[in-house]
Amino acid sequence: MTNPLYDGLFAPHAGHDTPFLILPDGAILTHSDFLGQAARLAHVLVKAGLKPGDRLAAQVHKSPQALALYAACVQSGVVFLPLNTAYTATEVTYFIEDSGARMVVCDGKSEAALAPLADRLGARLTVLNADGSGSLSDAASGESKQFETATRKGDDLAALLYTSGTTGRSKGAMLSQDNLLSNAKVLAEEWRFTAADTLLHALPIFHTHGLFVATNVSLIAGGAMIFLPKFDLDAVLTHLPRSTVMMGVPTFYTRLLDSPQFTHDSAAHMRLFVSGSAPLLAETHARFSEVTGHAILERYGMTETNMNTSNPYDGARRAGTVGFPLPGTELKITDPDTGETLPQGEVGQIEVRGANVFQGYWQMPEKTAEELRADGFFITGDLGLIDDQGYVQIVGRGKDLIISGGFNIYPKEIELVLDEQPGVLESAVIAVSHADFGEAPVGILVSAPGQAPDTDAIMEAVRKQLARFKHPARLIVVDELPRNTMGKVQKNVLRDQFADILTKK
Ligand code: AMP
Q1: How far is Cα of residue 413 from the mean position of the Cα atoms in its chain?
Q2: Contacts of 290 (CB under 8 A, 6+ apart)
Q3: What is the DSSP letter of 107?
Q4: How far apart are CA 372 and CA 376, in angstroms?
Q5: C-alpha 346: how far from its chain's center?
Q6: Rounded distance from Cα 193 to ligand 1 centre (Å)
Q7: What spacing in Å lies between the alpha carbon of 301 and ligand 1's midpoint?
Q8: Residues 6+ positions from 81 with CB-CB distance below 8 Å
Q9: How far is the CA of 357 from the centre of ligand 1 (A)?
Q10: pLDDT tens across 422-450, in order?
Q11: Most CB atoms closer than 10 Å: which of 59, 61, 244, 479?
Q12: How many angstroms separate the most distant Cα atoms in the chain?
């Protein structure tokens, strides 16, 4: 009986009273405590009728119990579907319907809003609050800490993570046990993780970065994590002295640098700082090494592929690059029109292939075929080049993705809401530099003939429909949108025109 992911990440820690999660108040959850919690939860899932391959959607706050729910899914063979806590009930409805989730775990505050939906879809609704209380934990408390691990194969699904869709529809990226396990092994080795490491974990756990990169690498190495509910500058500064490694989005590092309390001494004992999920400015890289003497290690990955490239542990970590393809991952730059591989130094679309690359989009065979070639190469949608020393540089995003504070925002989703508003003829949402978040969405509106859109009322409507991180930082009314001869809106023109609108004093 095997279950490669459980056997690789969790089973080796059975009976070990070594620290796994160190909580903000200093409480410690050992590996053995954590496995016990996971086993109890696995019993609850099975008793609720979930079978291997069924999906469990969880929109819950970060907590040890929420992480144990991921482990419980792996152990029972259930496919884990974590959801951003900022999503509104309307947004969550789509993910639950599309995935056909048989169980939905939510915060007590969302229970009433989700109950009718769960009822309609025949999904079981249970509650897990931020403090670990709720009907899920109540049900788990009486269960055994031993659970017979469900048999799974390496290509069976372990998780379904939704990405935003450029056309307004989100796609569920199907990640297999082997996709996750292979990446955890490679990263732990590349970044020299051991059981002596303590990772400062301030990332969310509904996204590949905090859930898989940070957690799986710590698990496979047998190390510990200081598990903070979110990035809070004071808390991070307090806990840094007890950590050896930190993983973050670029915003974490700019916020640390902005604090006078962050000094050379705060980072003196640290072994490694890793950055990813959005471009790290070369300027941030340089400032960080001036202050701390550490070169941040930047890596590149995405929901569909896990991690693809990394700057070297030993060797030059070059600012403005994402390093080399990881062992086992092939990366090539191709011509977007012909798919032919381009010569070194030329900009084209980044394609990757390897055990890390996902199985396809959930129930979207056409979309999968468009982006995942028959030979296994995945067209990432990112544009980049390989420089003369083999480092990969990302130069842009083919899909006009906006990355704000590490979160992905597809302009289309906001444009659809703006277009519906009274007085609006059409809209374009662009990324504009933002001092704190790296980028923020800005909405450009064209008035319907003879009308003047009420931007305050429009912002109010947007707030009701979209998660907070998607709210435009500014709405601007213009006479018309710039278009090319093919009728396509030239967002690059708008980006240039409004480049400093949020930073200009
Ligand atoms: P996600 O699926 O949320 O992980 O977002 C993936 C996207 O984030 C990638 O396709 C890239 O556009 C972007 N990304 C991730 N890491 C980096 C990086 N180090 N530099 C630039 N962009 C990045």
Answers
A1: 18
A2: none
A3: -
A4: 6
A5: 29
A6: 23
A7: 6
A8: 55, 56, 57, 58, 95, 99, 101, 159, 160, 161, 162, 172
A9: 14
A10: 999 889 999 999 989 999 999 999 999 89
A11: 59
A12: 72
- Residue 267's φ and ψ, nearest 5 degrees, are -110, 5
For 171, phi then psi, to 5°, come to -120, 140
Would you state the pLDDT for residue 484?
A: 58
- The strand pairing partners of 433, in sequence order, are 439
Q: What would the pLDDT profile of 358-387 be if each residue is shown by its tens digit?
A: 999 999 999 999 999 999 999 999 888 999
Q: How far is the CA of 302 from the centre of ligand 1 (A)?
A: 5
The torsion angles phi and psi of 37, rounded to 5 degrees, stand at: -60, -45
CA angle 78, 91, 227 (to 5 degrees): 55
Contact (Cβ atoms closer than 8 angstroms) between residue 326 and residue 190? yes
282, 286, 288, 292: CA torsion to nearest 10: 160
Per-residue pLDDT reduced to its tens digit, 462-486: 999 999 999 999 999 999 998 754 3
CA dist 503 to 210, 356, 438, 476, Å? 29, 38, 11, 15
Backbone angles phi and psi of 423, in degrees to 5: 85, -5
CA separation for the pair 466, 415 (Å, rounded): 11
Q: Which residues line ligand 1 (CB under 6 A)?
A: 163, 208, 276-279, 298, 300-303, 322, 380, 382, 394, 397, 401, 403, 408
- DSSP labels, 438-486: EEEEEEEEEEPTT----HHHHHHHHHHHS-GGGS-SEEEEES---B-TT
Note the helical H segments in 6-88.
31-47, 64-76
Q: Are strands 198-201 and 245-248 parallel, antiparallel or unpaired?
A: parallel
Burial bucket for residue 290 (CB in 10 Å: 0-12, 13-18, 19+) = exposed
Q: Exposed/middle/buried for 433, CB within 10 Å: 0-12, 13-18, 19+?
A: middle
251, 284, 302: residue to mutate for ligand 1 pocket, most atoms within 8 A of CB: 302
**Judging by beta carbons within 10 Å of its beta carbon (0-12, 13-18, 19+), is residue 119 exposed, middle or buried?**
exposed
The percent helix, strand, coil of the chain (3-state, each to 5) is 35, 25, 40
- The token pair at 210 is 């905090």
157-163 and 171-176 strand pairing: antiparallel
Q: pLDDT: is 361 or 411 the higher one? A: 361
Residue 251: band (very low, low, confident or very high) from pLDDT cuts 50, 70, 90:
confident
Cβ burial of 196 (10 Å; 0-12, 13-18, 19+) is exposed
Which residues on neighbouring strands pair with residue 172, listed in sequence order? 162
Ligand 1 centroid from CA 355, angstroms: 19
Ligand 1 atom 15: the closest Cα is on which residue? 277
